[in-house]
Design a protein that fits this description.
Keywords: Phosphoprotein. The protein has 325 residues and is α/β, with parallel strands linked by helices. It is 55% helix and 15% strand. The chain has a five-stranded parallel β-sheet with strand order 2-1-3-4-5, sandwiched between helices. A four-stranded antiparallel β-sheet has the order 6-7-9-8.
């Protein structure tokens, strides 16, 4: 897009003096879309309406009811991409220095303005806002890649856990587990584990997966030694999940679907719960007996019913599962 075709950046100026608002608009109207507000409260309302398009917020310091610092701090907490500038004719050096040091404001401009200097300051502030947006977009793309990598790694770990416990039958509980997670509507990964250093993330993921595998194996061994028939699976799920699982004529329904996605979607610092480990153990136990759970979604939750196991998975099928997540 050429400079001529690019839309003008938006600047919000907040001041209780109508003359100052008009002067600012006239001075910057050729290089930006100027929005104005006559008080801190009005400035907050304009921010909430136009935060997505605003590049710069300029506020006078001395206004009735509240100071400009308050508005800039409000914007700093909620809209960090907006460049914040304080302007005043009064000497507020101590407050201004504190605000700059805390990151609440980018610059301080003394009134009365030098028109050429003001235009230059706004041009530089708009450029900084653009760079912030570009950086944020690059960061989102990087985190999305990290998210996909971690989920793919967890799916691979799950496959290894299933195959390690039940051999060739391990692909059947693997398919049922991922089908349930899909029906549960697995959400996007949470940012606290997306922001970790890669080496720390890999180490933490390994310990988390090992703990999950240990819990699931313990429960599987108990089920294998218990002598329960496959059609008793729904009683086992009711025991493990309590009110989150409802028995039906054909099988059962998971009412709290979040219990089906823990291992795949929770951050690495979040240990997998005993009920979730029991869920995998039940699937492994059924797989050993040539059975699985047919999974389907519905408005009430995720429905499961007992079924004969399908054909074993192939590497291509595993790759397909990873692609779907």
């Amino acid at each position: 897009m050429t400079d001529a075709a690019r839309p003008l950046p938006a600047i919000l100026y907040v001041d209780d003096e109508p003359t100052a608002l008009k002067y600012f608009q006239r001075a910057l109207g050729a290089q930006a879309t100027v929005l104005t507000a006559g008080s801190v409260e009005e400035g907050k309302r304009v921010l909430e309406l136009h935060a997505d398009t605003l590049a710069v917020l300029v506020s006078d310091q001395r206004m009735p009811g509240a100071c400009g610092n308050e508005l800039l701090f409000y914007a700093w907490e909620r809209y960090p991409h907006i460049v914040r500038i304080l302007t005043t004719a009064y000497s507020e050096i101590d407050h201004t220095a504190d605000a700059i040091n805390q990151g609440q404001i980018h610059r301080y401009i003394q009134k009365p303005w030098d028109l050429a200097a003001l235009r230059l300051e706004m041009r530089q502030a708009v450029d900084l806002a653009r760079l912030r947006r570009e950086h944020a977009q690059l960061l989102r793309e990087k985190l999305l890649i990290r998210q996909k990598q971690v989920v793919a790694s967890r799916i691979g770990t799950l496959y290894a856990l299933c195959a390690g416990v039940t051999g060739n039958a391990g692909t059947m509980p693997f398919d049922a587990y991922l089908s349930a997670a899909r029906c549960a509507g697995m959400t996007q990964a949470e940012p606290d584990w997306l922001m970790m250093i890669h080496s720390d993330l890999i180490a933490s993921e390994a310990f988390r997966a090992a703990a999950f595998g240990h819990l699931a194996r313990e429960r599987f061994d108990a089920l294998a030694a218990g002598g329960t028939a496959p059609d008793g699976v729904f009683a086992l799920l009711g025991e493990a999940f309590g009110a989150a699982f409802h028995r039906t004529a054909e099988g059962g329904t998971f009412l709290d679907t979040a219990c089906l996605t823990e291992f795949l979607e929770k951050p690495t610092a979040s240990a997998v719960s005993a009920p979730h480990a029991a869920w995998l153990a039940v699937l492994l136990w059924l797989g050993r007996q040539g059975r699985t759970l047919h999974v389907s979604g519905g408005p009430e939750g995720v429905h499961v019913r007992l079924a004969l196991a399908d054909a074993a998975s192939t590497p291509q099928r595993l790759a397909g599962w990873i692609e779907r997540f």
